[in-house]
Specification:
The complex is a heterodimer. Chain A is of the alpha/beta class. Helix content of chain A is about 40%, strand content about 15%. Chain A has 17 helices and 12 strands. Chain A is globular, with a radius of gyration of 22 Å. Chain B is globular. Classes of the chains: A alpha/beta, B alpha/beta. The complex binds pyridoxal-5'-phosphate.
């Protein structure tokens, strides 16, 4: 640490300086597509990456930049690029590192769309992926090939809640000359800063806990600046001449910031999944209280775990903070403040009981999201994961009786009563 | 570009343009534990405006191989050797911090090789704190963290940046950590050991400019102003609210001041 402000201070202030003219205390929403150049020289300078500033909101925007700077500060990264969603954050990351013929090693236990992007979309463009179990670090070592450009995974897998030991996997990847890219959506920098624990690049779906309010989609890529792209010749997109900007060599001219510059100068220029300034504003509002909210999420999760573990209608409960979780020790070491607020549990009575439970809750909401301030419940077997074959369900560690609960910030007494009545109806439904 | 100097491969940034020394090149010299990356927004700005630019990584720094040099004089000799290697007769030096001491020494001992001197956040001597030198030797990461903390002003500490989305403090840490182990210690030791600043200032006759940071905790503005007096120059720019790392924190102010001073042909 650099004698820096602490987490909760950064959450409120990092990345924003009130402007001289109006002194707006809140981050203004710069709802504009473009910026008036001072003169032709100024315009050219912006296009040539020789001065800071904004030229077009697909590339950068002052409100979005505050969000980027704030998350970079919280994650201790050297820079960030915000995107329209968590998925596009992953896509522009892959785009900056991989070309046709390249290879990715990825955890097999992840959010469905992350898996689908690798398995079905990138494969059509000649980028292949080997999937391995996140909690078997040696499997990553074996899967890395000559053409592997990144190792990828979620710290806390969605929805199976397997834990990836990123310290060990990071070392394995880095020893092989490959960066570790981590989807940190479920942990947020409050529970774990992956860049300080083995990862080189972090992406977040800001849609979830970071925003916390469920009103805006967004994603972000944060560059740790802690990977030497010039150590081998694996990364020509960063160490050879860029197609634009007079053929700039990003590694030579921007050093540790080569990757994040490539994301902006290719992902945002040529693909353009930019975040709207209004969404950036909403996400900044959420991040202001991230620490407070995460503490409360952890407290309510603990109470919910106790409640569910003792409830007769529940056959099993899975959460990385429970000693019966296979990755309990790793989770405790990586995330001493708690391992997220998503709980998986099995309802006696299988699918029928699950559906009755979901349809009976009144305080909790039945929807396909996680990380909202409100408690959310879903039955993956009949919804988010319903497209998976029974074998794929099994491979993803999912069962028909499983419920996913994203524990919110409500008064726990109310949550408890709500769950009591819904569980009791579910028990009756199974007859 | 990569250059073979004294049988070591070293790197010098040319600001992203082909280096053609058709006039006295702008010769950027980095500070303690830094590299050419201190001058990203100077190199590109001036190279794109037609100036030949060199910002070399000294041995063990940035992308240069070789063993770290242990004295300011050895560093000056190295810079002169690089000029010889590139067939450059005279340069316009921009020295940041320790780079300023090297610039002073070059102008003093090789007066025919320097046309003018821009001294950025520097002084005639840099009496580095003994604790920091000790830390650089035994706990380099702590020394880096401390220097990045002290080296940045309010904007850096508030994680604001003229380059959208970028972070000064964490970038600074990674920039310094990318140097070879021992480079920082050698630099800091060279700074304390350099005592010829006053003598150099008395004897230097070429045009000198100072660009100082108002909130500089590492080479306080006061010592910069004293240097200006000894160098008999009133070409002083003070960048308000800036810390020691002003070339990256306040690039536009620094570039404006440099541009008004540089000779074009
Ligand atoms: C772990 C994880 N990563 C990425 C995403 C995708 O995020 P977004 O919906 O913002 O594109 C999700 C969404 O559920 C997620 O749970």
């Amino acid at each position: 640490m650099t004698g820096d402000y602490k987490f909760d201070t950064l959450s409120l202030h990092a990345g924003f300086t009130p402007d001289d003219r109006h002194g707006s205390a809140a981050v203004p929403i710069h709802q504009t597509t473009s910026y008036v150049f001072k003169n032709t020289e100024h315009a050219a300078a912006l296009y040539n990456l020789e001065i800071g500033g904004h030229l077009y909101s697909r590339i950068s925007n002052p409100t979005v930049a505050v969000l980027e700077q704030r998350v970079a500060a919280l994650d201790e990264g050297i820079g960030a690029v915000a995107t329209s969603s968590g998925m596009s954050a992953l896509f522009v990351t892959v785009l900056a590192l991989c070309s046709a013929g390249d290879h990715i090693v990825s955890s097999s236990q992840m959010y469905g769309a992350n898996i689908n992007l690798f398995q079905h979309t990138l494969s059509r463009y000649g980028i292949t992926t080997t999937f391995v179990a996140p909690n078997k670090p040696e499997a990553f070592a074996e899967a890395i090939q000559e053409n592997t450009k990144m190792v990828f995974g979620e710290v806390i897998g969605n929805p199976g809640l397997d834990i990836m030991d990123i310290t060990r996997v990071g070392k394995i990847a880095n020893d092989a000359g490959v960066p570790l890219v981590i989807d940190a959506t479920f942990n947020t920098p409050y529970l774990l800063k992956p860049l300080k624990n083995g990862a080189n690049i972090v992406i977040h779906s800001l849609t979830k806990w970071m925003g916390g309010h469920g009103v805006a989609l967004g994603g972000i890529v944060v560059d740790g600046g802690n990977f030497d792209w010039g150590q081998n010749d694996r990364f020509p997109t960063l160490t050879e001449s860029h197609f634009g900007f007079q053929g700039v060599n990003l590694y030579e001219e921007f050093g540790p910031a080569a990757f994040i510059n490539r994301v902006r100068t290719e992902g945002m220029y040529n693909v353009g999944p930019c975040l709207s300034p209004t969404n950036a504003f909403h996400l900044i509002q959420g991040i202001e209280t991230l620490g407070l909210r995460m503490d409360r999420h952890m407290k309510n999760t603990e109470k919910m775990l106790n409640f569910l573990s003792e409830h007769e209608a529940i056959s099993w409960v899975k959460h990385p903070t429970l000693p019966n979780h296979p990755d309990y020790e790793v989770a405790k070491r990586l995330m001493p403040k708690g391992s997220g607020s998503v709980i998986a549990c099995g309802l006696k009575g299988g699918r029928q009981a699950g559906q009755t439970f979901i349809e009976s809750v009144q305080v909790a909401s039945h929807l396909a999201n996680v990380g909202d301030a409100k408690t959310l419940v879903i039955h993956p077997g009949s919804t988010t994961q319903s497209h998976l074959s029974p074998e794929a369900m099994k491979a993803a560690g999912l069962t028909d009786d499983m419920l996913r609960i994203s524990v919110g910030l409500e008064d726990f007494d109310d949550l408890k009563s709500d769950f009591e009545q819904a569980l009791s109806r579910a028990s009756k439904a199974r007859g | 570009m990569k250059i073979n100097l004294n049988n070591e491969i070293i790197f010098a940034s040319t600001g992203g343009r082909v280096f053609e020394p058709k006039m006295d090149p702008l010769w950027f010299i980095h500070g303690s534990g830094q590299s050419h990356l201190s001058f990203i927004l100077q190199g590109r700005f001036f190279a794109n405006r037609g100036w030949p630019v060199i910002a070399a990584d000294m041995p063990s720094h940035g992308l240069s191989n070789g063993i770290a040099l242990m004295s300011i004089e050895a560093m000056s000799d190295w810079q002169i050797a690089l000029m010889d290697q590139l067939d450059v007769e005279k340069v316009q030096i921009v020295g940041h911090s320790q780079g300023g001491l090297i610039g002073l020494d070059m102008a003093h001992r090789y007066p025919n090789r320097v046309s003018q001197l821009s001294l950025v956040a520097t002084a005639l001597s840099i009496p580095v704190n003994a604790g920091l030198i000790e830390m650089a030797k035994n706990k380099e990461q702590s020394a880096i963290d401390a220097m990045i903390d002290w080296g940045h002003g309010p904007e850096g500490h508030n994680h604001d940046n003229t380059m959208p989305g970028q972070n000064h403090l964490n970038f600074g840490v990674q920039l310094m950590a990318a140097n070879k182990v021992g480079a920082l210690y050698a630099d800091l030791k060279a700074c304390v050991d350099y005592t010829n600043g006053n003598l150099a200032a008395n004897e230097i006759k070429l045009p000198v400019q100072l660009i100082l940071a108002q909130k500089d905790k590492m080479t306080p503005m006061k010592s910069g102003l004293k240097a200006a007096e000894a160098l008999r120059t009133d070409n002083i720019t003070i960048v308000e609210n800036a810390g020691h790392m002003l070339p990256s924190e306040h690039p536009e102010d620094v570039n404006r001041a440099l541009r008004s001073f540089f000779i074009k042909s």
